[in-house]
Amino acid sequence: MKVLTILSVLVLKALSKNLPSSFMVCDHFGSNVNECLTEAINSALVQLRNGIPEIDIPSIEPMRPGSNITVRKNDAIISLHDVHMYNLSNAVVTDLKSNITRESFWLAANFSATDFTAIANYSVHGQLLFFHLDGGGKGIIDFKDTILQASMEGIVVNNRFRLNKFAVKVLPKLVIYDLQNIIRDQKKFSDDVNKVFNDSWDVLFYELEPELEELLSSIWLNYANVVLSYVPVSDK
């Protein structure tokens, strides 16, 4: 994963010898499971900054989705590639609910992320807002005071939980853009365009939001299922 996928490990009472002993584990049939999972997830996010070599999970700093984001809006095409996301390991669980049985589980959690950043190479072509754009280069997008809503559902297969759904919603209070060279070789005009985007930050964000959330959801679903393959369902 890169960030929220570790939630799935902590849904279970981890019995596998392949998981590091430093992980806090929870009885997922216990009466205080939600409180335990909240504490365990916050602890695990800190550990994930350095990765989990015992099960070949790389560091989440930075998170590298590996896929491109392409948005087509009327006459404009916006592409982000080679995306790196920073500081998601600083997210903190603020609310968590679960419903876990020996046949299935459901879990939903809200994370508070004060400040995380996406850095990518980007290109944009066509009419966007008031501008005809034909540029590209390094793009920096800062998300401020963001709530990340994560929900997941799964079943039991061969004594392992297997996710079939992982959905992520990104809810920032502010987004700041630095899209360099957005008007090719015209720095002043590029700065002016960035100012307009930042003054109306939600307009561009809402165009990028569905693709961003779909990408994150897909990555975390696959990553979580890899992690869960190491963890048997508790016998308790």
From TrEMBL:
It holds the Pfam family JHBP. The keyword Signal applies. Keywords: Signal. SMART domains: JHBP. InterPro entries: Haemolymph_juvenile_hormone-bd, To_sf. This is Circadian clock-controlled protein. GO terms for cellular component: extracellular space. PANTHER family: CIRCADIAN CLOCK-CONTROLLED PROTEIN DAYWAKE-RELATED (PTHR11008:SF32), PROTEIN TAKEOUT-LIKE PROTEIN (PTHR11008). Residues 1-16 form the signal peptide. The keyword Signal applies.
